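seq:
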Amino acid sequence: QVQVVESGGGLVQAGGSLTLSCTASGLAFDDYAMGWFRQAPGKEREGVSCINWSGGRTYYRASVKGRFTISRDNAKNTLYLQMNSLKPEDTATYSCAAVRTYYSGEHDPCGGDMDYWGKGTLVTISS
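struct:
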């Protein structure tokens, strides 16, 4: 049984930093591209960042580029999102998801249907 579990959310002041973690079990982690998504209250879910199966290729939405860093440790089946210079508009529930692909080209491999999702962790940025 596949399980995807996020952790690390919390309340942070604007300008602060936070690191999210996501651990996946029950799957061959390095067969999967991994992505972070977020959904703010009353808004659609949006992709934040994606990383290919090896960690060698990363993708970011424009609004977080230069502030967020995605990484993965395949030996630990864990995905990370380091978030710096946080803004109130970053407030959302952040979810981790996996898609089985080795694609590492120009297009975001997390841009289509994902195979497995976590339940999310809440990030709140105060102004």
